[in-house]
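chain below, 253 aa
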Amino acid sequence: MKVIIKTSLIILFSLAILNCSAQKSTSFKPRVVYKTDDLLITQISKNSFEHTSYLQTQDFGNVPCNGLIVSNNNEAIIFDTPTSDKGSEELIKWLKDTLHYKINAVIPTHFHSDCLGGLKVFDKYNIPSYAYFKTIEFARENNFPIPKNSFEDSLALKVGNQSIIAKFLGEGHTRDNIVGYFPGENIMFGGCLIKELNANKGYLGDSNVDAWSDTVEKVKKEFPNVKIVIPGHGEYGNKNLLDYTIKLFKPEK
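prediction:
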């Protein structure tokens, strides 16, 4: 009996060690893979990268602006362009020349320049651009670069043998803000609809503050398995960013 108990304990102990080792081997530590004055690229998972560029503003100074790159089988899709032509040129060349990726699409998540400021460079490289139909309308009204392809409500595109989803779930930061989702790694690009932890409300010039909280509630329900959430500005995190944004814009009773 003692031998059986001892053997069982050894097996359980061995399984525990193997489980810990497996968790360590699958954990990913973010690392900067590219950095210049105009562009920062950080690998945040096996197949995904955050790109950060900078926008000089009158009210908020030089603002870091985030985007997302997802990849599979040497193909990539980008959410939001860098803010400038120079940053966009660097991003495209890095993906093509360093990683040897084919860029299937770029998807601006709303009409502001921190989302589509570098779109003309993507056009130059014949990279297809997709946007919610209202984004195209607002970009045209403001004489901003105009994405080539529109969609209503949602869009699904292939990247390698996986897919991405872009979806409009309601108004908030703007009347056209969408979110992007990569189910393969449960990563969401929330864009400016989602705030980093402890952020203030930021620019509200084109916003629907009354709808904002309810919209993010819908986002949370639509993508319950999300593990990583990237806001338009600031540090990425987990679904706590969704909860923080919901609370920040919750109408006062």
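The helical segments are 2-26, 85-98, 113-116, 119-124, 133-141, 209-222, 240-248. The CA atoms of residues 170 and 215 lie 5 Å apart.
thats it, cya
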